[in-house]
Task: structure prediction
Amino acid sequence: MSVHDLDFITEKLNELKDQGVYRKLTVLGSASGPRCVINGKTVINLSSNNYLGFANHPRMKKAAIKGIEDWGVGAGAVRTIIGNMSIHEQLEEKLAKFKHVEAVLTFQSGFTANAGCIPAVTDKGDVIITDELNHASIIDGCRLSKADVVRFKHSDMEDLERVILEVKDKYKTKMIITDGVFSMDGDIAKLPEIVELAEKYGCITYGDDAHSSGVLGSNGQGSAHHFGLSDRVDIQIGTLSKAIGVVGGYVAGRRNLIEWLNHRGRPFLFSTALPPAVVMACMEAIDILSESTELTDKLWDNAKYLKAGLDNLGFNTGNSET
Result:
């Protein structure tokens, strides 16, 4: 029996209950689709990140099954030892072509991509300039870095420039980080203005496309492609778990960046490689997106239809652009 009953954790849990923020997980009784089963009742699902329906796409299921049949259920090791299968490299090559960059490195999630990339790129004596509404994974990635962190007001380009001017002569490396689409409000980053300021003052640009991968761009290539900036955003983060419908994340950019993360991206170095079924399904998703704009077009039509209907009913949809 444990010598410590962890009463202090029970006290903290009781505090959450007193504050009204204690929660229990919603349990799905079906696959996650446009409709799903919760507590035995079929409901309309407006809460998932399965934007394109890929989580249940027949071609994705078939690809995942083939991955298991041909490669097994697991990679068996980290990629730096013996877990680097040829299909991992094939997926990264597909993603690099899809994102119009030199190279890509996959991670176990979008969270670990940020947690691995930010500390690997920045160090003591550097500064990270980050939007105040960036995702928690960016916040934690900044915490793991030894760099100083300065926040600017959400999507406020005047405040961003003010911050840059304050720090530009104090640090060797300056990196601006923004979400591509902000996950809570649905607004799109002012990427052209951010890139312009970054180039003007010699900053690295870092965009997290978690919610814009598969959504923005002609075939869902993300926010940089949406604005015609694929060759001007230095570091692009993507997930394979939202619009792509599976699980995983990746960093996209110059080849030297990816080589560096191969050596210094700690989640990549110390986590077992993505399972074959995941890899094969993700490759199929990229193929589907590359073949046609049908799904992304339908997504945008549906989003505009829903937003217009909610507006007409008097609901406030906030600043959402997506």
